[in-house]
Specification:
By secondary structure, this protein is of the alpha+beta class. The chain has a domain of 88 residues. It is built from 17 helices and 14 strands. The strands form four sheets. A five-stranded mixed beta sheet has the order 10-11-12-13-14, with helices on one face. The longest helix is centred in the middle third of the chain and has 16 residues. It is globular and about 70 Å long. It starts with 7 loop residues before the first strand and ends with a strand.
Length: 370
């Protein structure tokens, strides 16, 4: 795969290049929508962490910018990676949803038995949902009430009253609805095709090629296992499909020797990668930031093995040169930085980043370096 196997690079160089692609070094000037598009998806289980993931990549930002982008439709929310809610780009997010829906969960016998909706009845059900939210967003419970007016879906009313999480997910994967700003803390759905920025759900192979390329463009150089982790573990795309997309992109990819390991990068990015200078930038990121989750916490070149459990448990990482070297946490008026790397602690750089984080969070903390 690829033709440029003679090119070699180091992890320091690769992580520096990736930091730039992540808008972390240098910090970017892009708006909220571009940050979301660049990362592919941003987890939204904790909205404060999602907003920090965006703002830490912006030279200038304002509180509530991510929520404002969602309300304006320049960012959308849907169930995506690992079945969890993520912020996506309305222009490119459909590619990830296409991959997630490829498993056709609504055709499984257990699904049909539980919801009493046959695969043949699914298109009409989707149409009924779109019609129900045509006049504006509805909470899940309100959607259940609206659908109960149709005898065919009356039996689903208790499902919607209980939250209908599993039933709603494929409706977002197929682009019927997206998640609207919550009303009174309740999951709220809105029709997606009324968003003028929404480009729809592309053909599966087109979506797969886009998703592979987008991953390598921001998270590369990456091994084939990394690609399978991102699209296979994350979106249940299937190993055979992913291998097919990689094969179809062979002419657009290059294989580089990454410290002795073959890794993939877009051929168009090779020269830029080789020109990258190692970075010493220190950044404070939110827990489960895509810097860590994109390659996966098993990648010891980003997350050293002794720190993996902390990252898995959503500790806030302190990153230097792309490597997780510690954690940070706030409690009351104190911000504690815990340095867990064997190298000398870069106090000056840490305090500079503390000041940047404090400005983003709007706090004046007492700082403790450990």
């Amino acid at each position: 795969m690829g033709t440029r196997t003679e090119v070699s690079t180091t992890w320091a160089q690769a992580l520096s290049w990736r930091l730039r692609r992540h808008l972390l070094d240098p910090v970017g000037t892009q708006g909220v929508a571009e940050v979301v598009r660049r990362l592919g998806a941003i987890p939204s289980m904790d909205e404060s962490l999602a907003e920090l993931a965006v703002r830490t990549r912006q030279r200038s930002s304002t509180p509530g910018g991510l929520a404002e982008a969602l309300a304006e439709g320049t960012v959308i929310k849907a169930f995506a990676f690992r079945g969890a809610v993520h912020h996506l780009s309305p222009e490119e997010g459909g590619a990830y949803l296409a991959l997630r829906s490829a498993g056709r969960q609504w055709e499984r016998s257990s699904w049909v038995e539980h919801y009493r909706l046959t695969p043949e009845a699914w298109p009409d059900f989707r149409a009924a949902v779109r019609e129900a939210v045509a006049d504006g967003p509805l909470t899940v419970q309100e959607l259940g009430e609206a659908l109960a007016g149709n005898r065919a879906y009356r039996h689903l009313r208790p499902v919607f009253d209980e939250g209908a999480g599993t039933l709603v997910k494929p409706l977002t994967w197929q682009g019927d609805v997206s998640i609207a700003p919550a009303r009174d803390g309740r999951l709220t759905l809105q029709r997606l095709d009324t968003n003028p920025r929404w480009r729809g759900i592309p053909d599966l192979d087109e979506a797969g090629a886009y998703a592979v390329s987008a991953y390598l463009r921001v998270y590369g150089p990456a091994t084939r296992d990394h690609v399978h982790y991102w699209l296979g573990n994350g979106l249940s795309s299937g190993r055979r499909r992913i291998d097919g997309w990689l094969a179809a992109l062979a002419d657009d990819l290059a294989t580089v020797d990454l410290a002795g390991t073959p890794a993939l990068v877009l051929a168009a990015d090779v020269d830029d990668l080789l020109a990258a200078e190692p970075s010493d930038a220190v950044r404070f990121l939110p827990g489960h930031d895509q810097w860590v989750m994109g390659p996966g916490t098993k990648d010891v070149h980003v997350t050293p093995a002794p720190l993996r459990e902390l990252m898995t448990r959503k500790a806030n990482p302190v990153v230097r040169g792309g490597l997780v070297c510690g954690t940070w946490a706030t409690k009351a008026s104190e911000l504690t930085v815990t340095w867990l790397d064997g190298s000398p602690r870069p106090d000056r750089a840490l305090r500079q980043e503390v000041a940047r984080l404090a400005e983003i969070l709007g706090i004046e903390p007492k700082v403790s370096l450990r």
